[in-house]
Amino acid sequence: MNTMKQTIAVMAVAIVGLVFADTARAQVTTEEATAIAQKAAAAATSGLGLGPSQSVDGSAYVSSYSPGNGTEDWDRYWDCGGGTHITGGWFTAGNWNSATFNSDDIFSNPDLFPGWVTANGNPGGSWYWYPGNSTTITAEAGATVEFAFIGVNNNPPQGEMILSWGDDTSPFSLRTSSEGGVYMHHDSPPNDSAVYKMDMGDYNVFRLVREPNATKVDLYVNGGLSPALSLPLTGCSLPWCDGGNLNHLGAASSKYEAAWDYIAMTSGAETPISREISAAIGGSAGGADGAAGADGAAGADGAAGADGAAGADGTAGADGTAGAQGPQGKAGADGPAGADAPCAPCATVTNVVFEALCKLTSPTSLQEALDCGGVLANLALLGVNPCDGTTSDCYDTVMADLSTLVAEKLAD
Length: 412
Ligand SMILES: [Ca+2]
Known about the structure:
By secondary structure, the protein is an alpha+beta fold. It is built from six helices and 17 strands.
């Protein structure tokens, strides 16, 4: 039963995926695609500690970004606590005294912030790492450095070192800009990148990546997926390519007052994008395959998808069948009055009645003839338009004349 449910769940996911993919190809606009990408990036980075807003407990500083140091497998990581850069951290050289760095401090708060160190702004102090012959940081393998600090303000001195880094082929440095921001510098051949302007007084995360055999180094800031700056690494010549410049990492010049949170480094290029891809497919490359795990329980149903975009208009449909006959219409208005029928002279009516009387009957008395003649006169006058007087007048005239004519006939 469990297998059945799993199968159904997998099929449902596959169908939804197919529908979505088809919709995406056909309908998604640039704005929608941008929104989807931003959402995906936010979702992907949230698990890396690059989500927004981390307050520094007890301090006045609130960062716009939180560091990703806790989730990565760094070769070297120091949280800036537990001693000096050498006794607590992984650096091997450099100056540290009470004038240059203060442990457990964010600026003027004495020893209230374990895991932080403040560079006091006095000259002379930096942290250096010299791996000697055991370096794993090579141009061939690529490498990544990440660190975070809060600057005392956004008015840093011009050109102070934040980080100085050389693999086995070329050195460069990341420096402060008096414009408010940072830039990258290469000594040989001499070259400066553009200035990336940012609020140096905020909590900022810097990530430098040298991809394998790359001819440039990229700076990513605050979890951004695209480089904020790039600097070509086109070559190296003496005196910049001796042992003091190659194969080293220098950091945290005390000439720029800043409170440092952590610094980490690893062999291999770990761009923000490659980190996300790695996380999405289930972790780091390399090791042998593990044994197959037991089947997981069937997942819960996914949420219903959003409505799709409106479709295009369809083609016109075929004509419908004829409708039923409608109800009978209203009676029409009366027509105009007709023309008068032609009139009939009463004398003509009298002659018709008399001839009919003679043919139909053989009266033996005047009264008998007039009784019968009255019936015939009424018949004859039906529908007749008398030329003189009314129908009743014409009837009287007809009966009077008929009386005369019948009397003369009887007298014959
Ligand atoms: Ca820290």
